[in-house]
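Hi there, hope your week has been kind to you so far. Thanks so much in advance, here it is:
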Amino acid sequence: MAAATTLNTNNLGSITRYEDVKAAAAKTPISDAMGKTEFLTLFTAQLKNQNPLDPVKNEAFVAQLAQFSQLEATTNMSSSLSSLVSSLQGDRMMAGAGLVGRSVAAPNIPVKVTNGQPVTSVVELPDGADSMQVQYFDSLGRSVRTVTTAAQQPGQTTIAWDALDDAGQAVADGTYKVVATATRAGQKTNPSVSTYGFVQAARSDPSTKEIYLDFDGGASAPLSSVVRVGG
């Protein structure tokens, strides 16, 4: 008579059922990205529920530990970068605050005429120009002065306006828009024009984290767009 086969059930109680693992996984919040905690949970579950007759190979075990070390290093780096960004944000705010009360040139800031004093603008000409025309418009969009210059070298060109109109009369105090038209090799372009204004305040945009400067007269410009300080 064949000998009866004896099944050793001493260690069966330590084997987690598939249904239990599935239930535990269902209770775990689903995330779009695997973090350190999720990795450890998955790694521990894998070790606890591996096949006793075919355990995880040493090579695979070491590889997974290496992956965990890399994940932890990446997590720590991300935390360090977040701290650095916060620190730089504070530094940029302090830089903006240091410009309060100073004359700063930034693009798309209207010039402000006060008591008939001359005003200065900076025109960006990366390729230079054979000729250039600068127009000044009042708050109603009417052209009050047109200035034509000769050829300009590549770089920044400073244009001063004496606050007079085309008839030679002093214009009224207020804000004026500046538009430049550069001609090069027969082609016309509208280069960027930066005008000077006095900074009244510096603020941070919560959505973009950009630092903005508020100028006298109501205009605003990003701190990163400032081309000159003083002048």
